[in-house]
Amino acid sequence: MDSNIDRHINDLTVRYPQISACREQLRTAYFMLEQLYSEGGLLLVCGNGGSASDSEHIVGELMKEFKLKREVYKDQADAMKRIDSELGTILAEHLQGALPAITLTGHSSLTTAFMNDCKPELVFAQQVNGYGKKDDILLAISTSGNSRNVLFAAVAAKSKGMKVIGLTGRRDSRLAQLSDVCIQVPETETYKIQELHLPVYHCLCMMLEEHFFGKT
């Protein structure tokens, strides 16, 4: 399996040579996520602005087909057909396998109510407190690594026994200190950092999809 991981990371660094500096961080993050999903865990993702869009993008790649066909597992397909032959057959033919992930940047009723009634900077932390459980993972995205609502979420995650993967820029930051692993792409300007974040998380999503849904 390690050879497949190296193949993906090598392809990534050929296309984006700067990301070579993040090779070991990327490997560590991947194996954390592989273990998470092997044990039936949940990934929570958060960020602000462009990183909020990245949060939603990541969840989209994990929760449905990305590059590979993801048929539901045979036991589930058979169970759906037993429950209802007509509806179960349609589900079995069209439902896709998923890697459970939730972005904390949506849920407008919850977030606006919390921000109005409580302390707005804790809006991600509140959702971590509600969704997260021991050994789940928070993927915390911040180009500066110092976004306070993201930092509060990281502290809340650690307090629940969750792991934290940071995705930041080059500079050292409080998020890097709080993370179990922090992928620090080698740029310092916000838009340049974001330009490298996308291929990093695409690579992670491809490797996870291949592991869990690739043909053996």
Task: Please explain how this structure is put together.
- This protein has 216 residues and is α/β, with parallel strands linked by helices.
- It is 57% helix and 10% strand.
- The chain is built from ten helices and five strands.
- A five-stranded parallel sheet has the order 2-1-3-4-5, with helices on both faces.
- α8 (148-159) links the parallel β3 and β4 (163-168).
- α1 packs antiparallel against α10 (190-213) and α2 (23-38) crosses α10.
- It starts with a helix and ends with a helix.
- The mean pLDDT is 96.
Topology:
Layout: H1 2-15, H2 23-38, E1 43-46, H3 50-63, H4 74-83, H5 85-94, E2 101-103, H6 108-117, H7 123-131, E3 137-141, H8 148-159, E4 163-168, H9 174-178, E5 181-184, H10 190-213
Parallel strand pairs: 1-2, 1-3, 3-4, 4-5
Helix pairs in contact: 1-10, 2-10, 3-10, 4-5, 7-8
Features of this protein?
216 residues; alpha/beta
Concise account of the structure shown:
With 216 residues, this protein is α/β, with parallel strands linked by helices. The chain has helices spanning 2-15, 23-38, 50-63, 74-83, 85-94, 108-117, 123-131, 148-159, 174-178, 190-213; strands spanning 43-46, 101-103, 137-141, 163-168, 181-184.
Low-confidence region ranges: none
Provide the helix percentage: 55-70%
What's the end-to-end separation, in Å?
A: 11 Å
**Helix/strand order:** HHEHHHEHHEHEHEH
